[in-house]
Write a structure and sequence with these properties.
The complex is a heterodimer.
Chain A lengths: L3 E4 H11 L4 E4 L6 H10 L6 E4 L3 H13 L4 E5 L1 H16 L4 E7 L15 H5 L10 E3 L4 H18 L2 E7 H5 L1 E4 L35 H21 L3 E4 L6 E4 L2 H16 L4 E6 L1 E3 L3 H8 L4 E6 L5 H8 L6 E5 L8 H17 L2
Parallel strand pairs in A: 2-3, 2-4, 4-5, 5-7, 6-7, 10-11, 10-13, 13-14
Antiparallel strand pairs in A: 1-8, 6-12, 9-11
Chain B lengths: L5 E6 L5 H13 L5 E6 L12 H6 L3 E3 L16 H7 L4 E6 L2 H5 L6 H7 L2 E7 L9 H15 L5 E4 L9 H6 L1 H11 L3 E7 L3 H4 L6 E4 L13
Parallel strand pairs in B: 1-4, 1-5, 2-3, 2-4, 5-6, 6-7, 7-8
Helix pairs in contact in B: 6-8
The chains are: A alpha/beta, B alpha/beta.
C-alpha cells in the first residue's frame, strides 16, 4: 500500500470518507478545523454532504437526524465545542443511535487555550451528557491510528448502536506523518432494520426517540442498554503493551504522551531500569484486566497525561490500589519532555520498589 | 543557484514550506548576507517557525512572526515588522506563506510593494505525497487558487516531495516525472528539488539542483529500540 503524508485531522476526514461516511456536520474550532476544511473540499466532489452548522448544538442534532436514517455520519470539534454537543450526544445514546464524534482536545476549562490537552478524559469516559450512558472512546497515538480508529469507531458504533468518540489531543490533530489510508468502502446500500426510512405500509413505524413516559419502560431500556455495554466491555477493549515482559515500572499513557513515554522508556532501559508501558487504545472500555494482571508483576505504575490526573483514577480503580500509582503530568497546552518522564520513571522505580 | 532579495515560499497546506524556508534562510545567511525570516502563516496553530527562533537567532537570522504564535490566542495577526522587511531594500528576506489560498491571503497586503520593487522569487512548493496534490491537475488548481488569493504569480517550482523523516530516495525519484509535469503544464522552471540531507549522496548523480534540508527531530518522533 502506498503511503501519503497527512495531518492527523486530514487523516480522520479522509478515513471517514473511505469508510463510506457521506454526511459531515461541523463548526470550526482550533485545533480540529482541518477536519471541516478537508470535508468542505472533498464531500461536494463525491456527492456527500458537508454542512457548516450555525453552532455545535445544531451540528450534533443534524447528526441525530442522519443517524436515524441508518447512514454513517460524523461531527468533529474541540473541547469547548464538544461540551456544547453533550446534550445531543445524550439524546443519541438515549435513542440508541450510532455516530462518530471526533474531539481533538485543547486546554481548558472554559475557553482555555488552543494547545493540546487530554483533560476531556472524564467528560468522554463517564458518558458525555446527562443520564446513564457510555460512548465508546478511542484514543489514537499516531496519524495511522487517527485513520484506522476512525473506521473502527464507525463499525463499533453501528455494531452496538451507540455513539463513539475519537478522543485525540491537539498534537495528534496537527502533526504530520506517513499513513496508509484504509480501503475504500461504498456507503451501505441497505439501511439497518431500525432505521427511519419510511414504512411503505409494509412494516410498523420505526421511531428515533429518547422520551419514555412510563418509568418502568425507561428503567427496562436503561438496564438493557447496560447489558449491551457489558458486552462491549467484554469484547472490545483495545490496548498495546510495550516492553512489559519483565517490567518493574508500568507506564500508562495514551495519545501524544504515550509517544513521549515510549522514548523515555527506551532511555530508562538503557540505564538499566526495567520500565514498560500499557497504552490504552480504548479509554472506555478501559483495559482493566491487563492492568490488574500487571499489578501482580510490577512494583509501581506511572500515568503520563495532559490533565491534572484523570486517567490516574482509572488506573487506581483498575489495579484496585494494589500498587502505588505515580503521575507525570503537564496541563494548559504544555507537554512533558522525555526527560521529565524519565525522571518520573526513576522516581517510581526507586520509591515504588521500597513500598513492597 | 541564483537568488533575489525576497524569496517567497507558498504552496499546498503541508507541502513543507516552513522547513524549506528555514533552510533557505540559513543558506542565504551562510553567504554572509543580512537575512530576515518572516512567518506570514495565519493558518497553522502548531509547529511554526517560532519553534526555531533560538536556532535562527544564533545564526544571526532575525525572525519576524506573529506575537501570538505558539500562544493560546487564536488570532490571525500579522506583525508590523513585515512592512520594514518589504520596504528596506538593503536586507534579504525569506517569507513563509501560510498553506493554500487561505494562507496566501495574508500576502495580498504586501503584494503591491513586492511587485513594484520586482526583486523577488515566488516559489511554489509541491509534494506529491500529499493526498490532495498527487496529480498535475490538482496541483495546478491549488497553484491558481494561491496566486489569486496572494496577488503574486509564481516564478518557479520547488519539488519537495517527502514523507517526513521516513522519506526514501526512491520516493524522491518517483516524483521527478510529476514535478516535470507540473513544470510543463505551468510553464514554470524547477528551481530545486529539496531533500533531507541524508539522501544527498544517493541522489546527487540522479537529480539536478538538489537542495539539502536539515530536519528537526521532534520530541514525539518514535525512536527505535536500542
Amino acid at each position: 500500500m502506498e503511503k501519503v503524508l497527512m495531518k492527523g485531522n486530514e487523516a480522520i476526514a479522509e478515513a471517514a470518507i473511505r469508510a463510506g461516511c457521506r454526511h459531515y456536520f461541523g463548526y470550526p474550532i482550533t485545533p480540529q478545523t482541518e477536519v471541516a476544511a478537508y470535508m468542505a473540499k472533498r464531500m461536494p466532489k463525491i456527492d456527500g454532504v458537508f454542512l457548516q452548522a450555525e453552532s455545535e448544538i445544531a451540528a450534533i442534532n443534524m447528526v441525530y437526524g442522519v443517524s436515524a436514517t441508518g447512514k454513517r455520519v460524523m461531527t468533529s470539534s474541540s473541547s469547548p465545542g464538544i461540551a456544547l454537543k453533550t446534550e445531543g450526544i445524550s439524546y443519541l445514546a438515549g435513542a440508541d443511535l450510532p455516530a462518530l464524534i471526533v474531539n481533538v482536545q485543547r486546554g481548558g476549562p472554559g475557553l482555555g487555550g488552543i494547545q493540546p490537552s487530554q483533560a476531556d478524559y472524564f467528560l468522554a469516559t463517564r458518558g458525555p451528557g446527562h443520564g446513564d450512558f457510555h460512548v465508546l472512546v478511542l484514543a489514537p497515538s499516531s496519524v495511522q491510528e487517527m485513520a484506522d480508529l476512525t473506521v473502527r469507531g464507525f463499525e463499533l458504533a453501528e455494531k452496538y448502536r451507540m455513539p463513539a468518540m475519537l478522543l485525540a489531543d491537539g498534537t495528534m490533530g496537527q502533526m504530520m506523518e506517513p499513513v496508509v489510508l484504509p480501503e475504500e468502502q461504498k456507503p451501505a446500500a441497505k439501511a439497518p432494520g431500525w432505521a427511519v426510512t419510511g414504512t411503505e405500509c409494509k412494516r410498523p413505524h420505526n421511531i428515533a426517540n429518547s422520551l419514555y413516559l412510563s418509568p418502568a419502560e425507561l428503567e427496562r431500556l436503561n438496564v438493557e442498554r447496560f447489558e449491551r455495554y457489558a458486552e462491549v466491555e467484554k469484547n472490545e477493549v483495545m490496548w498495546e503493551e510495550f516492553m512489559m515482559d519483565d517490567a518493574e515500572v508500568c507506564v500508562v499513557s495514551c495519545g501524544i504522551t504515550a509517544r513521549v513515554s515510549r522514548n523515555a522508556i527506551i532511555e530508562a532501559r538503557a540505564m538499566g531500569i526495567k520500565a514498560g508501558m500499557i497504552r490504552p487504545i480504548t479509554l472506555w472500555p478501559f483495559p482493566k484486566k491487563p492492568l490488574l494482571a500487571a499489578a501482580d508483576k510490577v512494583n509501581a505504575f506511572l500515568t503520563v497525561e495532559l490533565s491534572m490526573g484523570q486517567m490516574h483514577e482509572d488506573v487506581e480503580l483498575a489495579i484496585r490500589c494494589k500498587k502505588p500509582v505515580y503521575m507525570c503530568n503537564r496541563v494548559g497546552g504544555m507537554i512533558p519532555s522525555p526527560d521529565e518522564v524519565l525522571n518520573s520513571i526513576k522516581k517510581a522505580a526507586e520509591e515504588g520498589g521500597k513500598a513492597q | 543557484m541564483d537568488f533575489k532579495r525576497l524569496t517567497l515560499f507558498a504552496g499546498h497546506y503541508g507541502s513543507g514550506k516552513t522547513n524549506i524556508a528555514l533552510n533557505y534562510a540559513v543558506w542565504l545567511r551562510e553567504k554572509g548576507l543580512s537575512v530576515t525570516m518572516a512567518d506570514l502563516d495565519i493558518v497553522n496553530p502548531y509547529f511554526r517557525t517560532k519553534d526555531s527562533e533560538e536556532a535562527l537567532n544564533k545564526l544571526g537570522i532575525e525572525l519576524i512572526c506573529s506575537p501570538f504564535a505558539n500562544s493560546n490566542l487564536d488570532v490571525p495577526a500579522m506583525p508590523k515588522e513585515i512592512y520594514a522587511l518589504v520596504d528596506d531594500h538593503s536586507q534579504y528576506g525569506v517569507l513563509d506563506i501560510g498553506g493554500d489560498d487561505r494562507g496566501a491571503l495574508a500576502l495580498g497586503r504586501y503584494a503591491p510593494e513586492i511587485l513594484s520593487e520586482g526583486n523577488y522569487e515566488m516559489l511554489f512548493v509541491i509534494n506529491r505525497s500529499r493526498p490532495l496534490t498527487r496529480t498535475v491537475d490538482d496541483t495546478l488548481s491549488v497553484m491558481r487558487e494561491i496566486e489569486a488569493a496572494g496577488g503574486v504569480s509564481f516564478t518557479a517550482i520547488v519539488n519537495n516531495t517527502n514523507l517526513g523523516l521516513a522519506t526514501t530516495a526512491q520516493d524522491v525519484l518517483d516524483s521527478v516525472s510529476y514535478a516535470r509535469g507540473v513544470s510543463e503544464a505551468s510553464g514554470l522552471p524547477i528551481k530545486m528539488t529539496s531533500v533531507k540531507q541524508e539522501l544527498m549522496p544517493e541522489l546527487q548523480e540522479k537529480i539536478d539542483d538538489l537542495f539539502p534540508l536539515r530536519l528537526q527531530e521532534l520530541y514525539y518522533q518514535i525512536k527505535t529500540e536500542k
